[in-house]
Every structure is written in C-alpha cells, then in structure tokens.
Amino acid sequence: MENLKKLTKKNLKTISGGGAVWCPEKPITSCDIWCGLTPQQKMRCLLVVDEVCTC
Hints:
Layout (H helix, E strand, L loop, with lengths): L8 H6 L16 H5 L3 H6 L11
C-alpha cells in the first residue's frame, strides 16, 4: 500500500479502459461468429440474425 500515489488529472486521462473491443464486420449475421465472441464483444457488437443463437 505504501507504493500508491495520488493520481493527477493528467494520469487519469492517460488510463485506458482495458483496450479496445474488436468487433467483426457489422452486422454479425452468423451464429458461429457470435458464439466465438467474448462477453465484452457481445455487449458492444451488433447482431442481426433471424434465428436465436444458442451457444
């Protein structure tokens, strides 16, 4: 705990939010692609499929 320091506004602006989330071509029309995505990608990427995807 003694190695912690106060963060300045400049430090806070340089913190990235865990990296960019990659999305395949939009919209995703294949359940095979959808089922291979991480939970973070599923929240951010658009899905347009006529059937329900069961992974």
